[in-house]
Structures are given as C-alpha cells and as structure tokens.
Amino acid sequence: MLGRAELVRSWLGEASDGGAAADRDKPGTYDAAYRAVAVDGDVAVATGSSTYLSGPGGPVEEIFDNCFVMRFDSAGRCREFTEWYVRRPRA
Asked: Comparing C-alpha atoms, which of 79, 80, 84 is closest to residue 68?
C-alpha cells in the first residue's frame, strides 16, 4: 500500500483487492499491550506483545513480541511505520 487514502481503504475493507479488514483476527481471539519507550522529536518507539488464542476464551496458541518505530510529520500524522516482531518460544 502506498499513501494515506489507500491505507485507510484497506483498514476499512474497501480496497479493490478485499483489503486487510477481511483478514482481521476474530473478536476474542487475541489481546495486545503496547507502550511508548522512547520519543525524540518526530520519532517514537513502542514495544509490546500480541497474544493469540485458539478461539474466544481458548488457550494461548502463540505470543509475539513487537517493536514499532514511527516517524511523524509536522501535523502529527504518522508518515513512516516500521514493525519488527518475533514469535516467543513456547515454555
């Protein structure tokens, strides 16, 4: 995707190819928690984890640890977003 309008259409499931909204996780099958760990001028870094369940209320299937780096324009809109993630090993 390139550009704000195309990204918004994808989030809303209005993209010509069906968009990302059609691929969303079903409600109750995931949980996520993130927090900002650094902000410097127009750059912010957040870390957190995403937990996926087998189904609503079911056991945990996998957990991912994430790091996001975001750059913002002068209007406060995100102009660049990079995500790194790694699947947490099972205990």
From this structure: 84
Q: Is residue 73 part of a domain?
A: yes
The structural domain count of the chain equals 1
Question: Which domain does 55 fall in, by range?
Answer: 25-87
User: Is residue 48 included in any domain, yes or no?
Assistant: yes
Q: How far apart are the first and last CA of the chain?
A: 36
pLDDT digits 0-9 by tens, 26-75: 889 999 999 999 999 999 999 999 999 999 989 999 999 999 999 999 99
Strand order in the sheet with 30-40: 30-40, 43-53, 60-72, 78-87
